[in-house]
Structures are given as C-alpha cells and as structure tokens.
C-alpha cells in the first residue's frame, strides 16, 4: 500500500498486519503512483531477515532495503531493470540494456553473474515489443517472454493499445547457463502481472488448470485515468490457446489488477 507522502508499506489484507519500511521521498518523485512497478521479496514479511526490492517505472531502476534499514538503496545504477526475483539466495534481474539476466550481490553492489537472454524465435508477423519475466520453477529458473501486438489506436489515434499475442517459456540449464524453450510446465501454472511472477502447482487449486499461464494487464498506458483493463486471461502453453478466467466485469478494473496468494 502507498500513502500520499510516498511511504510504501506491505499490508496483509486478511489480518491487517503492516510491515513498516523507510519513506521513499528521497528516492522518487512525489507523483508516486506513476512510478510504482513491482515489489519482490527475498522471504515472507514475517521473516526477520527479509530483503524487499522495489522496481521503479520511471527509469527501470530499482531500490531495496533490509530489515531495520533507515533508507532505501539503489541497486547497481548501470542496470536497466524490467523484472527481478530472488532465487537460491541471489537476486536475479532482467537487464534490458545489456540483454541479459544478471545475478546481483546486494551487499557489495556487484554483478556476480551474467546470463545472456535466450535467442528469441520470431512471433507472428505484425507483433512487436516483448515483456520479460523471471519465475522460480521446481527444477530451475524460468524466463518468460510475453509477446505484445498492436490491437488498435486509442483517443484519436495518439496512443497505441497493445494486447498479448502469446508467450514463450525458457528454463535455465545451470550447467551450461543456456536457456531451453519448454512447452510443458507439468502440473504447474505461472501467474504474471505486476506481482512477483509465481509458479504454483495446479493440484493445490482445484479451479485452475496446469500447464497454463494466468496473466493480468500490467501495461502503463493512461496510468492516471480509469480505463478498461482488457489484457488479462489464460494462455494454454501446449497449444497456444487463450481463455478467460472471469467475465467482462474484470475488464473495468483500475488501477492494474494484482494476484493475491494467501499463506497460512
């Protein structure tokens, strides 16, 4: 949750518990809601040694803090970040500028490993602009590419509206540090959006389907005005089919929808 004085604090919607964090006034613009992009955790907020990372939309930069810190710290200012995840006690980030996935040592502010992005196979003609995500699967780190295609123009043709056209999923071979494309998540599902990207087993959720990607509209266009959030749905990884998980009423959400995963 965000206050009017750019103070970011996690709120448990079920218990009402709040985790207090440093103020962000010195680290971002007062027009805060235009810059909030994504928050990722190293552990549950109840863990006394958690690290929280906040990705900023303005310059694809990121800041982080540890338990008890008085200020947020910038993560390696040479990186241009579009996603991040903690995996095997390291922070992995998507660096758009260098075209790689980088492992960052937060203590020493060093990039300790760089893994080139997979050689992406071209999507259907007329598509452009990919969004990239990282997720932790049961057998390795996953790199997900979301293909965006131009659907139509908005407001007298001045703004291009983008819509999801497909996904590709790659799994990291940690021995060779190569990405291998996969069409199977097994029993698993991926949840993508403004949240930290998540892999979950479908066997724990009776209403959900395995080997599918559940995605929400995480676009930033017209961010200060209520708009239709139409780009949400289910993608069947095996055959490329799209489906919906709710009716048309969910397309009128503002701001962007997020996933909530209850933990005991």
TrEMBL record:
KIB1-4 beta-propeller domain residues are 2-228
Query: InterPro entries given for it?
Result: F-box_BR-signaling, KIB1-4_b-propeller
Origin superkingdom: Eukaryota
Which Pfam family, giving just one, matches this sequence? Beta-prop_KIB1-4
User: Mind telling me what this protein is named?
Assistant: KIB1-4 beta-propeller domain-containing protein
Organism name: Acorus gramineus (Dwarf sweet flag)
UniProt lineage:
Eukaryota, Viridiplantae, Streptophyta, Embryophyta, Tracheophyta
């Amino acid at each position: 949750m965000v206050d009017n004085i750019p103070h970011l604090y996690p709120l448990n919607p079920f218990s009402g518990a709040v985790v207090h964090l440093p103020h962000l006034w010195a680290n971002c613009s007062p027009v805060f809601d235009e810059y909030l992009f994504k928050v990722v955790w190293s552990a549950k907020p109840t863990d006394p040694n958690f690290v929280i990372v906040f990705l900023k939309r303005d310059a694809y930069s990121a800041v982080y803090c540890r338990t008890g810190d008085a200020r947020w710290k910038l993560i390696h200012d040479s990186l241009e970040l579009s996603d991040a995840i903690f995996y095997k006690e390291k922070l992995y980030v998507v660096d758009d500028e260098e075209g790689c996935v980088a492992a960052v040592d937060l203590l020493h502010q060093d990039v300790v490993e760089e893994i080139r992005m997979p050689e992406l196979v071209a999507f259907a003609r007329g598509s452009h602009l990919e969004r990239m995500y990282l997720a932790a699967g049961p057998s390795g780190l996953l790199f997900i590419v979301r293909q965006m295609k131009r659907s139509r123009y908005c407001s007298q043709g001045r703004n291009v509206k983008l819509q999801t056209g497909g996904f590709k999923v790659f799994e990291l071979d940690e021995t060779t540090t190569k990405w291998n494309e996969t069409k199977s998540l097994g029993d698993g599902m991926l949840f993508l959006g403004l949240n930290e990207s998540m892999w979950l087993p479908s066997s724990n959720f009776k209403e959900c389907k395995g080997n599918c990607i559940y995605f929400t509209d995480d676009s930033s266009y017209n961010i200060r005005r209520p708009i239709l959030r139409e780009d949400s749905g289910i993608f069947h990884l095996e055959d490329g089919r799209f489906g919906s998980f709710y009716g048309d009423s969910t397309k009128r959400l503002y701001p962007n929808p997020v996933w909530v995963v209850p933990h005991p």
